[in-house]
Amino acid sequence: MSLSSHPPEAGGRRSVRVELGERSYEILIGAGLLQGTGAEMARRLPCARALVVADETVAPLHAPALLASLERAGISAALHQVPAGETTKRFSELERLVDRTIAERLERGDALVALGGGVVGDLTGFAAGVVRRGMHLVQVPTSLLAQVDSSVGGKTGINSPRGKNLIGVFHQPSLVVADTAVLETLSEREFRAGYAEVAKYGLIDRPDFFGWLEANWRAVFAGPGRAEAVAVSCQAKADVVAGDERETGARALLNLGHTFGHALESAAAYDPARLVHGEAVSIGMALAHRFSTRLGLCPASETERAVRHLQAVGLPTAIREIPGPAFLADELMNKIAQDKKVQRGSLTFILTRGIGQAFVARDVEPAAVAGFLAEEITAGPA
Amino acid sequence: MSLSSHPPEAGGRRSVRVELGERSYEILIGAGLLQGTGAEMARRLPCARALVVADETVAPLHAPALLASLERAGISAALHQVPAGETTKRFSELERLVDRTIAERLERGDALVALGGGVVGDLTGFAAGVVRRGMHLVQVPTSLLAQVDSSVGGKTGINSPRGKNLIGVFHQPSLVVADTAVLETLSEREFRAGYAEVAKYGLIDRPDFFGWLEANWRAVFAGPGRAEAVAVSCQAKADVVAGDERETGARALLNLGHTFGHALESAAAYDPARLVHGEAVSIGMALAHRFSTRLGLCPASETERAVRHLQAVGLPTAIREIPGPAFLADELMNKIAQDKKVQRGSLTFILTRGIGQAFVARDVEPAAVAGFLAEEITAGPA
Ligand SMILES: NC(=O)c1ccc[n+]([C@@H]2O[C@H](COP(=O)([O-])OP(=O)(O)OC[C@H]3O[C@@H](n4cnc5c(N)ncnc54)[C@H](O)[C@@H]3O)[C@@H](O)[C@H]2O)c1
Ligand SMILES: NC(=O)c1ccc[n+]([C@@H]2O[C@H](COP(=O)([O-])OP(=O)(O)OC[C@H]3O[C@@H](n4cnc5c(N)ncnc54)[C@H](O)[C@@H]3O)[C@@H](O)[C@H]2O)c1
Ligand SMILES: [Zn+2]
Ligand SMILES: [Zn+2]
């Protein structure tokens, strides 16, 4: 069964187009595409030079193949290495990358290439957005999360000591190359965390895709089902982005599970030993479903089905599964109130009426959320 | 005689609209407008809070009146002070301002207010473009240069150690308030330097305006002619910006005098004791005219007329007028080649066929420029 509107071309390669007028671009998906990245760039961009950005984990694994591919295509390329981890999304690393880009004499037609997970993608995208007020950006996502989420849509940025992703620009890539084979070197935990975002697209508005995932998730984890899952996810994100490039409306649905999830990540001080982003999103989606059921919006059977699938792939679905000290409902409520999506005090949540039926709920009662969280923490599933 | 398409309203106030679809905005021009800034913001923006940014020179002079005006309009406001001078356009000041903006809990609907010259405007605009991926920006320009040029058009940014204005974003203001009375506290040298940009609009494509300036420049310097000169200049810039928001084409004409001017500024190490930007532009415009005449493009009488007016207001028009060590033609040529407007080795210049007849010339012979500069340095007017 093929769910993506763009079935595989010869060689199993797929392509999804993000329609944004003159800022439209292609997402290429398939195993082994890394080696062809230079040629794909040369076909599309004036690009004579490129600066490849990768973290210290990904650089030794995949940068040599990418650099060789660029050289073969006649693009002179250098490598800029950054530390691994979320703290790389900071001003000092932005400045270092911007300086390097200018020092390499990249002109406006040249490209910054983000080879890595969402951290490298967000940092590199921001730099590409501000050097000479906008240079070409090519995303070569290497984590599942980056392939299905962060590399598509043009949101870029760094963190402030006062909150995540508070500083950045919208800057669309010129091309995204998602090589599903590079995921082989990703840890199982990171792969699984990225899968939470894949499942999210099914839960938002693609019930057929969710059913396909229930039947085929083992093939997604093992390899053969990967390109299909990535392609459908990219198509889902591309559809939302095309309708709402700058997140003023429909794009909010992509935050299913994220209001709760961000509060948990923040309360856990972004300590990856306790929780990584996809795990927080998995718990957040389970909470959004249970909260919707509690409000009488979503049948209990639908919530059970959503939670059962997340558990089947090994993702956490309850606050009490997070290792370490217990959370406080008050603390989580404070985090939720600080969330940047909060407008003038009223709470906006993504709730659901069932699998594939998420919606934006405004004016959710803070007291109802607080009561629900207190119960989850003390008596919820563990 | 009134040249601006928007003659004064009651109270002598004028307004120019920058047409950019949903990013359109108003430039209000007149004496005493500072006191009404809060009310004008309250009429247009959701704005509950504002952060006013000013340098240490302008803050004591004009921030109290602006802060009072915001408070009267029910906008709670704080002041962020930065050092005066070009070096404030740097990463560390950007980070400090971004942090302050987030610390003040400004939400997306709130505004950053740039009270100052082009330095404060460029830095504040950049910060407004990146906090939460875009906040409201209100420009309250206090130098003549900022009123007629930098506050309009959405170019924002900071400098790299490797070149000026290389880092930034396009971020249009929501409102520009140009109070011509605040120019009273500006030094005569800075006022005169800003006047070079006013004359530039006449020289580019407004010969009538140039004629008006020849007749009325004393009134512009003294006060009564100021609002008219600022309004026509803003209209000229607004027209160009509306046709080419992101500087891919026609906007290049605004660089009349700037290729030579930037090279001189850079060779003088941006030392304001030797040269400030408007003075460099004045010399650059004189050079562009003389070079055009030498190439047989512009009648000598037109060049003489342009130069005569710049000299009449006290602006420099020759390289040899710059105090300090002599310049080298080779050094200037290197600076010109490094200029960010250079595309793949070919030189693009703004040349002219006469007063108000500037045009973009591509593929200018580098050897012709070098020969011309060598002559200007050794034998040109002094
Ligand atoms: N811009 C957006 O729209 C958007 C959307 C979602 C998330 N994000 C951001 O993305 C970031 C999270 O992304 P992430 O989960 O990819 O984090 P990440 O970039 O830190 O990658 C996770 C870890 O996996 C390693 N890694 C990546 N690819 C690998 C590979 N092929 N082999 C071996 N190791 C590999 C990395 O070195 C890192 O240690 C967060 O900062 C989040 O805010 C952005
Ligand atoms: N964004 C654009 O489109 C654009 C266009 C042109 C220039 N610029 C930038 O603008 C900057 C130059 O602007 P500028 O000439 O206004 O420089 P500036 O901001 O440094 O101001 C010049 C000096 O005048 C002082 N000053 C300003 N207003 C005053 C007042 N009312 N009373 C007393 N003192 C006052 C300032 O403190 C400063 O010392 C440069 O950085 C240039 O790159 C930007
Ligand atoms: Zn996410
Ligand atoms: Zn200028």
UniProtKB/TrEMBL annotation, chains A, B:
Protein name: 3-dehydroquinate synthase
Catalytically driven reaction(s): 7-phospho-2-dehydro-3-deoxy-D-arabino-heptonate = 3-dehydroquinate + phosphate
Database matches in InterPro entries: Dehydroquinate_synthase, DHQ_synth_AroB, DHQ_synth_fam, DHQS/DOIS_N, DHQS_C
Keyword Lyase: yes
Similarity comment text for this entry: Belongs to the sugar phosphate cyclases superfamily. Dehydroquinate synthase family.
Pathway, per record: Metabolic intermediate biosynthesis; chorismate biosynthesis; chorismate from D-erythrose 4-phosphate and phosphoenolpyruvate: step 2/7
One annotated Gene Ontology cellular component of this protein: cytoplasm
Cofactor names: NAD(+); Co(2+); Zn(2+)
GO biological process, one term: chorismate biosynthetic process
EC number per UniProt: 4.2.3.4
Cofactor binding summary note: Binds 1 divalent metal cation per subunit. Can use either Co(2+) or Zn(2+).
NCBIfam families xrefs: aroB (TIGR01357)
Statement: the UniProt record of this protein carries the keyword Isomerase: no
Species for this entry: Aureimonas jatrophae
Pfam families in the cross-refs: DHQ_synthase (PF01761), DHQS_C (PF24621)
Principal subcellular localisation of the protein: cytoplasm
Binding site for NAD(+): G118, V119, V120, G121, D122, T142, S143, K155, K164
CDD domains linked: DHQS
Compartments, record wording: Cytoplasm
